């Protein structure tokens, strides 16, 4: 129920002039009672009106009541009504000093209340307030409720009502004051009760507001929790490890069903989702192996080790690599590629014993000497101008082995490195373009191993390079058709020493007999009983593409003078059926001078041409001298 807002008059002093309006104060009034009106008169709030105009639900012996309150035998009002001095109760409001009851609103001279309510003759109060049992007279002879005074007589014309009214019951003033004090006390109780109700209403509204705030807070907390849980769920589900775990779970199901294609797809997604998942790499590598995809497993495991640095993945990687090497060895398909797999595993340092064992097996397969095979051709190019042999791969492998040996200083690693550096076959063919790098490689390895055979091999290769460099200009000049350069070459001290060393069998590392070939393309190492020699291949042993020089290493004397001979064979013709050979000599022979033959040292050039039709020779005596002669035969 909504409590109305009402105003009531405040008391005024006796010194206040008549007609001066008292101050107003807003108060909360107690709701009016619900008693039925009688004798046709009603109050503004629905209270009964007695026949004499007095209002009350019950009437005491003297007929006076407060507004809806019981009256004791002595006339005092009970149940919270405030008594006026004259014993007449207002409609729950204060009385004025002259005892007039106020109905809660200010009355104008016309009888309207200040609150805007008219005072009706029927006894209804303005603004719906209960009327007191009696109301005091106001100016003009009207009561505060629009009734006449309780005595029933009108005031005389032209006379004002007395400021203080004589009690209607004839009681003394002291009795009236006693009643007034009682009524005031009861009014105070009533106001206290009203204040308590107002406090209760405020408390009720405060509690409602607090409940609303609590509901709002709970709603906000619950909403925040839901949002937070949702975010956490999304974040957790999107974590790489979670996504990878889901794919691994699916892959496991396919693997158990031996659906390797489905398992591979799931595990590949797991690796993609979380590149740091060791389990994903392991399972995917296993699936690759089951499908005979060793190369893919190898690449995957090494990538996994690079991403995770997990030792298990590294060991698994080495195992897969070495298993491939074993398969190739067992299939009798051992190559340098097989050696490379073993070296790759050795470099990781996790299963060295197995890697070293397989490297030894590979060496025996690659460099094994048989009755029909005693020549190593790993470093041999059919065409020296094109690098088609395995030397480059071989050099890279030995350098990797050397790095492992330098890092670990293991005797087992040194022994394997020595096996591959010193090839134990009787004949090792090497294309001349690889000669220099091979010599440098062995020299570097020997710096770590200090092996006598390596020292010998290094020295032999150095001598071969020296010989090749010495004849380098001759190849250039002869290739350009400048055969006259031979007259200078065969008389040089260095050339004569080479010739004499061969004749005397003191050529050192260079082997050859009669006509010793010099080639820019191919040479061969001869390894036997701890010694190493070399020789250049002749054009009968390979296809001559860049020309070949032959040094005469046999004793040929004319009148006790040793000949100096050099032969040049250009590259074979395109048809292969024709060839040319140039023989240039410095010898002691007859020279025709003025029609007479005079023996002396001179140069001779013989040009022999071989065709399908036969062989023809053109000879020029005293070649380049004053008595040059020429003859064909």
Task: Give a quick rundown of the structure.
The chain has helices spanning 173-238, 240-256, 260-273, 278-290, 294-308, 311-330, 336-348, 352-366, 391-408, 411-421, 435-449, 452-470, 472-479, 485-489, 493-504, and strands spanning 5-9, 24-28, 375-379, 427-431, 515-519, 522-528, 531-536, 548-552, 557-558, 561-562, 564-569, 579-593, 596-610, 615-621, 629-632.
Describe the 3D structure:
The protein has a domain of 198 residues. The chain contains 15 helices and 15 strands. Helix 6 runs parallel beside helix 8, helix 9 runs parallel beside helix 11 and helix 11 packs antiparallel against helix 12. The chain starts with a strand and ends with a strand. The N terminus is likely disordered.
Topology:
Blueprint (H helix, E strand, L loop, with lengths): L4 E5 L14 E5 L144 H66 L1 H17 L3 H14 L4 H13 L3 H15 L2 H20 L5 H13 L3 H15 L8 E5 L11 H18 L2 H11 L5 E5 L3 H15 L2 H19 L1 H8 L5 H5 L3 H12 L10 E5 L2 E7 L2 E6 L11 E5 L4 E2 L2 E2 L1 E6 L9 E15 L2 E15 L4 E7 L7 E4 L1
Parallel strand pairs: 3-4
Antiparallel strand pairs: 1-2, 4-6, 5-8, 6-7, 8-11, 9-10, 11-12, 12-13, 13-14, 14-15
Helix pairs in contact: 2-3, 2-4, 3-4, 4-5, 5-6, 6-7, 6-8, 7-8, 7-9, 8-10, 9-10, 9-11, 11-12
């Amino acid at each position: 129920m909504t409590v109305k807002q009402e105003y009531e008059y405040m008391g005024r002093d006796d010194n206040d002039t008549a007609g001066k309006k008292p101050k107003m104060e807003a108060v909360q009034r107690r709701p009016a009672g619900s008693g039925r009106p009688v004798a046709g008169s009603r109050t503004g709030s629905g209270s009964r009106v007695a026949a004499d105009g007095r209002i009350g639900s019950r009437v005491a012996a003297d007929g006076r009541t407060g507004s809806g309150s019981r009256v004791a035998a002595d006339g005092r009002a009970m149940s919270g009504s405030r008594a006026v001095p004259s014993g007449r109760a207002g409609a729950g409001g204060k009385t004025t000093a002259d005892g007039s009851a106020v109905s809660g609103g200010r009355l104008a001279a016309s009888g309207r209340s200040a609150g805007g309510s008219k005072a009706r003759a029927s006894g209804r109060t303005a603004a719906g307030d209960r009327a007191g049992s009696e109301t005091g007279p106001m100016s003009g002879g009207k009561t505060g409720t629009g009734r006449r005074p309780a005595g029933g007589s009108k005031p005389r014309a032209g006379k004002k009502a007395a400021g203080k009214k004589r009690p209607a019951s004839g009681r003394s003033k002291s009795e009236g004051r006693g009643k007034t004090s009682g009524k005031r006390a009861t009014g105070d109780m009533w106001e206290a009760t009203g204040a308590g109700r107002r406090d209760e209403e405020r408390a009720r509204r405060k509690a409602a507001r607090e409940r609303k705030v609590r509901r709002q807070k709970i709603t906000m907390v619950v909403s925040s929790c839901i949002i937070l849980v949702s975010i956490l769920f999304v974040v957790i589900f999107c974590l790489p490890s979670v996504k990878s775990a889901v794919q691994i779970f699916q892959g496991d199901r396919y693997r158990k069903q031996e659906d390797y294609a489905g398992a591979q797809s799931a595990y590949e997604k797991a690796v993609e989702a979380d590149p740091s998942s060791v389990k994903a790499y392991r399972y995917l590598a296993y699936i690759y192996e089951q499908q005979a995809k060793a190369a893919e497993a190898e690449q995957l495991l090494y990538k996994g080790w690079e991403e995770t640095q997990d030792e298990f993945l590294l060991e698994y990687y080495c195992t897969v690599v070495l298993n491939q090497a074993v398969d190739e060895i067992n299939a009798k398909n051992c190559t340098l590629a097989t050696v490379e797999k073993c070296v790759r595993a050795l470099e990781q340092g996790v299963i060295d014993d197995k890697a070293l064992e397989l490297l030894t097996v590979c060496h025996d397969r690659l460099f094994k000497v048989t009755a029909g095979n005693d020549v190593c051709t790993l470093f041999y190019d059919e065409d020296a101008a094109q690098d088609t042999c395995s030397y480059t791969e071989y050099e890279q492998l030995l350098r990797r082995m050397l790095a492992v040996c330098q890092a670990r200083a293991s005797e087992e690693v040194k022994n394997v490195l020595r096996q591959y550096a010193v090839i134990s076959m009787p004949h090792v063919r090497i294309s001349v373009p690889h000669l220099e790098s091979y010599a440098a490689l062995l020299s570097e390895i020997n710096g770590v191993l200090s092996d006598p055979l390596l020292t010998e091999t290094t020295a032999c290769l150095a001598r071969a390079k020296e010989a090749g460099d010495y004849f380098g200009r001759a190849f250039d000049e002869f290739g350009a058709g400048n055969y006259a350069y031979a007259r200078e070459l065969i008389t040089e001290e260095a050339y004569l020493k080479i010739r004499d060393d061969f004749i005397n069998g003191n050529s050192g590392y260079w082997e050859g007999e009669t006509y010793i070939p010099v080639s820019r393309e191919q040479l061969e190492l001869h390894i036997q009983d701890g010694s190493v020699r070399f020789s250049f291949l002749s054009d009968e042993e390979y296809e001559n593409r860049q020309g070949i020089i032959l040094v005469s290493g046999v004793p040929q004397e004319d009148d006790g003078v040793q000949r100096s001979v050099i032969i040049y064979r250009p590259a074979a013709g395109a048809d292969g059926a024709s060839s040319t050979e140039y023989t240039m000599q410095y010898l002691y022979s007859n020279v025709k001078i003025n029609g007479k033959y005079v023996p002396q040292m001179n140069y001779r050039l013989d040009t022999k041409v071989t065709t399908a039709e036969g062989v023809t020779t053109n000879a020029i005596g005293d070649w380049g001298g004053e008595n040059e002669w020429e003859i064909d035969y």
